[in-house]
Amino acid sequence: MAVPFDQLEGIIWYDGELVPWAEAKLHVLSHGLHYASSVFEGERAYGGEIFKCTEHSERLKRSANALDFEIPYSAAEIDAAKREVLERNGQRDAYVRPVAWRGSEMMGVAAQTNAIHLAIATWPWPSYFNPAERLKGIRLDLADYRRPDPATAPSQSKAAGLYMICTVSKHRAERKGFADALMLDWQGRVAECTGANVFFVKDGIIHTPIADCFLDGITRRTVMELARRRGIEIIERRIWPEELTELSECFITGSAVEVTAVSEIADWRFTPGEITKQLMEDYETEVQPKGKAAAA
After folding, report:
1. Taking a C-beta distance cutoff of 8 angstroms, is the pair 218, 59 a contact?
2. Does domain 7-123 have CATH number 2.60.40.10?
């Protein structure tokens, strides 16, 4: 049985201090726990370097601003803290999780005077799906819940509250034997998976939903740039579920899943092809520290 996360060993950066893992605690009446006034990032370190480190730190601060609070550290300070934790934990290939939240000074919807806390943890984490499964293609269910209208939620933030329906949807999918679930948007169009962006291929052209009601992922943008380097055309557009029968390849992207092929979405079938395979390989090269990649 896997060790629970609160029982792992290591160091966590907590409000500017390095504390033993077991001592990184917050009160049960923290506003972030009750009212979801919390934002976070999911990042990966490869070969001792955090991929797109500053982009993630800047997005963390923007997410907090979207929830009407200011993280009391600059992006550069957050970058330095992440690297310090990674080094102190002796990790080179790891997952990096910064999280910020409102504290416990006030308990109610309004909490304008609550202290803002920031913690950063790192831990070893291999590929989300094993390499063979990533290339063969995972199976996705179709989620019941939909991504909300962007006029109703801060969809461009990585806010904890936005993931509530993602957890429910992924649990339901896993109970039915699927790896994850595809979510539609509030109008019934293809949006994203529970924690990853989605892409499709038709006649050598990549198609992906417009990121207006879900997070425009850093991995998403990275993979789009890699495709353009290869001269592959990318079209961001509205995609309706009935169009999926006309699309040949499908893959998802995210810091956790990296680039992973999809073979099924509910009753739709896809065949992982050359574009998916190429982008998987290109991404694996891109995330490596430049000196290591050049020597490979």
Report:
1. yes
2. no
| The one catalytic residue among 52, 82, 158, 170 | 158
User: How far apart are alpha carbons 277 and 273 in whole angstroms?
Assistant: 6
Residue 246: helix, strand or coil by DSSP?
helix
* pLDDT at residue 222, as a whole number: 98
Give the global pTM.
Answer: 0.94
**Annotation marks residue 61 as catalytic:** no
Distances (CA, A) of 251 to 43, 182, 208, 277: 19, 11, 10, 10
- DSSP tag of 212: S
DSSP H helices, the chain, are: 31-35, 53-66, 75-88, 131-136, 164-175, 218-229, 274-286, 290-295
- Please give the CATH number for the structural domain made up of 131-286: 3.20.10.10
CA distance 198 to 244: 12
| Contact status, residue 282 vs residue 258, Cβ threshold 8 Å | no
pLDDT digits (tens, 9 = 90+) for 243-291: 999 999 999 999 999 999 999 999 999 999 999 999 999 999 999 997 5
Residue 59's contacts (CB-CB under 8 Å, 6 or more residues apart) are 41, 158, 218
Distance, C-alpha 2 to centroid of its chain: 22
**First vs last C-alpha separation in the chain:** 36
For the chain, what are the domain ranges? 7-123, 131-286
Rounded CA-CA distance 12/15 in Å is 10
